[in-house]
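tool_call: predict_structure(chain=1)
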Amino acid sequence: MTDAARKGRRGGGRGTSAAGTGQDVPLALEGQEALFERLAGRRPAVFLDYDGTLTGIVDRPEDAHLSSPMRQTIAALASRCPVAVISGRDRRDVAARVGLPELIYAGSHGFDIAGPHGTEIQYEAGGGFTATIERAARELRYRLLGIDGVIVESKRYSVAVHYRLVAPGDRPQLVQVVEEVLAAHPDLRQTDGKMVFELRPALDWDKGRALEWLLRALGLDGPDVVPIYLGDDSTDEDAFRALAGRGIGILVADAPRATLAACRLRDPAEVEQWLQALVGRLAAPRG
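tool_result:
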């Protein structure tokens, strides 16, 4: 790996993934008509995060289940325009949870991408890192055994350390362990999300890069397409950055915060409401 491929041990591939450089934005439902006016004579392509966007944030990752109404809404949308899910979860995990084989899925923050069966949409950015990630996961599990509430989640191209259930007094020790394991594996970098640290390949690749790749691979990078991305976490800021000046980024957050998105929805319930409104604006499929 060249030095140019490594972009720092912490934060996003293009600087930080933290949402600290943008501005607070208006509510999407209140400005819905203005957003839909941007689609006049053009077609949308919708990209969705999973945790915190399509489902609520839960204490344990395995408890984040997609509701049937949300699934029906996404299916209706996918019958009218391209839809992809870009998640920090493993691709197979998030695909199984959404349960719609007609979608495109990008797992591990876009390191693992696959389209519906029979298409040529496939990309893997971190294939040479799996052994390193497995070693880091084993070390983290062993060294964090004495800390109650910690969840070490192994993925194909990353390992996540969830500390939502960890007592505040134990978190400094957890941080120290994560930093020491990171230091022992120079081919990995750390990104931070909602009560989670994640170690993944130290490549200039993130949700924004994955979004750009998908737009090109799907032939959706022309002026007739409006790409739309919905996400809730700091890692989604990379996707918002990629859409600056060319699409619509929608932050999902219950309170105002600095962001590179264009507008905000408060929670997954509002996400469902907004997507239903979008479905209503698009022509129904023929046949």
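agent: The two ends are 50 Å apart (CA to CA). Proceeding to next step.
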